[in-house]
Amino acid sequence: MYLVRSYHVAHFFFVAYHFSLLMVLFAIYCLLFCNINVFFRMSFPEKFQDLLKEWAPALVIPLSLYVAYKLLNRIIPGAHNLPKLDVKNKVVVITGASSGLGKSLAFELYKRGAQVILLARSTDKLKEICEELKETFPLNQNEPTYYYFDITDPEQAPWAEIPRVDILINNAGMANRGSCADTSMAIHRQAMETNYFGHVHVTNSLLSKLSPDGCIVVTSSVQGKVAIPYRGSYGASKHALQAYFDCLRAEHKNLHILVVSAGYINTGFGSRAIDPSGKVVGVEDENQKKGYTPEHCARLIVNAIRDRKTDYVMAHADARFAVFLRYFWPTLLNYSLYIRGTKDQWAPKNKKE
């Protein structure tokens, strides 16, 4: 009850503040166009008045539009209006937690006081991570726990051991390399089982245990918005993932779902991708090596959870621009991706037999 009352008070002051600011900006704009001397009740040089009148629209109008957007966005109901989410003492379930981004998320969340439950196939690694967490952050009295979990084998899931969830992080995944024509149906199905069906199963299994002000996080990819050549199975599975969680969000008024569309992260993920025959490629992409560190990404994601973001493109400017082109100039994007594809090591002319 206290949380609800605090939320309504904060909501009222937020709306009142932005409405007042909008009115002030509108008044300033009107007064500048009418007579600046009336506004300030003192004499200003004509050149100064003319300069202000010339630049007032360029300054006041964008600010007014931004304030109006923030105000209207606050009025619209949804999870984005829930109070900020403090992860301290929150129960956080992380899939794919034994390495890479999942491991970094475990450290970042535990550092901020969360109670983490780590899921992955490598229980030896999970045990080591839990011990390291306790040694590194002794002030957090929450005991980190772990369970064996294969996302493609839901029958072995430890859901009975998890009575409550505040934050669910769907993080496990796989990647592929090779043309759409060369990739076997078995690889397409494997990508969908891991990157789509697995996360759907996890989410459906724990949805009823999620706290009312909780959060579901999906570590997707920019390729869930913009498919790039020779990554067909991966891109298709990430597009499906985006669509499913968009739909789930739309079915609930205040369910906080954060889809993170990540760019390149330097975790070795690309080297674990499989080729059209199902073999691990064993070679890291050069773009992947230049990506964000997993520790940096973990901080950004936890901050996005705290700030109640719902769709977060965590990538460099070129990737964000590609997402923009996807909707506003798709023909240019398609040709740009074609040019990119001709330079890809998996393009027919570049493949090494």
Describe what you observe in this structure.
The chain has about 350 residues and is of the alpha/beta class. The chain has two domains: about 1-75; about 90-340, NAD(P)-binding Rossmann-like Domain (Rossmann fold, 3-Layer(aba) Sandwich). The chain contains eleven helices and seven strands. A seven-stranded parallel beta sheet has the order 3-2-1-4-5-6-7, sandwiched between helices. Strand 4 (about 165-170), helix 6 (about 185-205) and strand 5 (about 210-220) form a beta-alpha-beta unit. Helix 1 runs antiparallel to helix 3 (about 45-75). The longest helix has about 35 residues, at about 1-35. It starts with a helix and ends in an 11-residue tail after the last helix. Residues about 1-5 and about 35-40 have low confidence and may be disordered. This is Rhodanese domain-containing protein. One of its GO terms (molecular function) is oxidoreductase activity. Keywords: Membrane, Oxidoreductase, Transmembrane, Transmembrane helix. Putative oxidoreductase. Belongs to the short-chain dehydrogenases/reductases (SDR) family.
* Anisotropy-based shape: globular
**Structural class of the secondary structure composition?**
alpha/beta
Biggest sheet record: 7 strands, parallel
Taking the alpha carbons of the first and last residues, their distance comes to: 66 Å
Keywords:
353 residues, alpha/beta, Rossmann fold, 7-stranded parallel beta sheet, 11 helices, disordered N terminus
Topology diagram in text:
Elements: H1 2-34, H2 36-40, H3 46-75, E1 91-95, H4 100-111, E2 115-120, H5 123-136, E3 145-148, E4 165-170, H6 185-206, E5 210-221, H7 232-250, E6 256-262, H8 286-289, H9 294-306, E7 311-314, H10 317-328, H11 330-342
Parallel strand pairs: 1-2, 1-4, 2-3, 4-5, 5-6, 6-7
Helix pairs in contact: 1-3, 4-9, 6-7, 10-11
